[in-house]
Amino acid sequence: MSSLKVKGVYVVFLAFLFLVNEVTAKKTASELSVEELKIVGQSIKEIEEALLNVRIDSNSWVERGPSSSGPWERMPICLSSTAFFGGTSSSRARLDVHKSVLEWKAGAAPYLEKSYSVSFDGVQGRRKAISSSHSGNTFNINKGVILPDAPIQLRYSNEMTGVYASLFFHFRDAPDPFPTTFSPHFEGATDPNYLDVENPEVKFKVVLEELRGIQCIKMAYIGDSFRKEWWLDPNRGFALLRHDNLRDDQDGNEQVKSSISVTKLKKVAEDIWWPMEAYFVHCPFGVGDPWRRIVYRATNVVANDPNFDESVFTVPFPDGYLIDDQVAGRKYRVGEEPNAPAK
User: Fold this and answer.
1) Average pLDDT taken over every residue of the chain
2) Quick one: average pLDDT of 291-319?
3) What is the pTM of this model?
4) For the chain, first and last CA: distance in Å?
5) Calpha distance 18→292 (Å, rounded)
6) Helix or strand or coil: residue 72?
């Protein structure tokens, strides 16, 4: 396998694109060989490692409907934010929420509006509460928390910020020992011991298949009662185009549990394509609940900024903020003497 690079991607990647076009011109849903899996895995790994940093400005909102195909009615729930991430090998992240509107089932109003910032620098997390609004009133919070781990808001916002629709961070919060990026799935698939030997019914398949007129690599995990599928576009940096999560109901009928559909992509750096518009669909959580769809739209994406400031992953606390430091086990107010009691 050649190590000569062309525009940051191995020559084998270019050879694989030729292979895709040749094979799919003859037939569809053709399964990839072990050698082809190695080529795909190596090519995706090169692209994953090419991402050094990214900033995403976006708006998103929630819709509800009677089925997975709608019709959809927009709800007040929404998020306007700026997100920052390091590369795929980094756990560092930050989310600045300019406006978040959520249901407030036990509160004084049906919906609660908040603004806040959360960050994780790879060692400690921070959460800065800025303001809260309901019933026509706005309250300045001015409180901060230092945490021993990443704030949970970083995980819960991955759909609203579009992160789960990207090649780079779709598996970001996958539980151990599941891989946190796409490339190990392809590389590991060449190992006969890749899948859990205690669950031999789970099959891993990679085929060439057309989606919306685009020749794609489809990766799938197939079990007795479930099927998970991902479609990647090899002509646009293996960008994720679709993900389906299906399970059998109690009668054995296959049902959609959730899906992701990416409808707009933008080349934001060499070999890096980012989702600019995506839809996340979820089945009802309980009896009588509606289907829900998150609509994500990016307004600006900057990747591999040479002037990227790494200090962005530590949210600053302004003077006067009351801080609950759960790492050091103390509370204090910013700008006052370190040993002075919090007021």
Assistant:
1) 87
2) 97
3) 0.87
4) 65
5) 40
6) coil
